[in-house]
Amino acid sequence: MTTAQPQSDHSAKLMSGVALAKRVRDEAAAEVKRIQEATGVTPCLATVLVGDDAASVIYTQMKRKRCVEIGMLPKRIELPRESTTQQLVGEVERLAADPNVHGILVQHPVPAPIDKRAVFEAIPVEKDVDGVTSATLGRVILGLPALASCTPAGIMRLLDEYKVLLVGAHAVVIGRSPILGRPMASMLINAHATVTLCHSHTRNLAKIIGDADILIAAVGKPRFVQGDWIKKASVIVDAGYNKGNVGDVDFDQAIERASLITPVPGGVGPMTIATLMAQTAHAAALQLGVSA
90 Cβ partners below 8 Å, 6+ apart? Predict the structure, then answer.
């Protein structure tokens, strides 16, 4: 593949995730229909929400809405904010044992002092459609088939859609979370990119970013990446979403230097949820023995 070139000398081409996300959902809907015809079973995604955080409530609603749109069953589990780790783990274990549930998503962040890692590890790998368990991350690192973390998996599909050359490219990932930065770095390495994984303790970050052919920004700070840090004609994927509908990259500056850039909103976000739908349908197919 070759890296797409800018449409002009002064403006990057937008990497929109909206149309591609619809195509991914359509593919998932076709798989759901095939499963129903073969088994009479409708795939089911359980979303588990603890507390009443406004953003988390909206996110789980969006995910259940997408389930319905592609013909899947959404199962809604809501627990009070004061729930303990043991109570939440128990709920996940009940869903894990339920043959009618094919995917489990625990909406994060979960309120303190819940041990989110203990909760995630209670999800069986075959139902880990959000790619949060250590076993899933291990498979991603090794390049084995996996229900990978949805955001990095969606980003890889987006890069492929826009024919971004990964082989031999220098990719910089800002953020080292186990559900975004680390699996993202592993996927890029497995695609033969040379990867620098940066974080809050990285020195000379602006210089490192300036050497990047591909930048994945997942730092969680609005407009953190400045436009003059960016290498000309590079590819910018902004996985951040902050108050005011802004990403982690100063978009107005970056668009003048990049060859490709994702908008916020409308770039990575739609791909994350679409990937979740696709992976839930695929997980159901595997559990029910329905071949592709």
Answer: none
Q: What pLDDT score does 10 carry?
A: 53
CATH of 40-124, one of 3.40.50.10860, 3.40.390.30, 3.40.50.11810, 3.30.420.40: 3.40.50.10860
Domain ranges in the chain are 40-124, 149-269
241-281 confidence digits (pLDDT tens): 999 999 999 999 999 999 999 999 999 999 999 999 999 99
Over residues 89-114, the pLDDT tens digits come to 999 999 999 999 999 999 999 999 99
pTM of this prediction? Answer: 0.94
* Whole-angstrom Cα Rg for the chain: 19
Write the DSSP string, 8-77.
SSS-PEE---HHHHHHHHHHHHHHHHHHHHHHSPPPEEEEEEES--HHHHHHHHHHHHHHHHTTPEEEEE
pLDDT at position 2 is 38
Does the domain at 149-269 match CATH 3.40.50.720? Answer given as yes
Same fold, 40-124 and 149-269: yes
Report, as residue numbers or ranges, the catalytic residues.
63, 107, 130
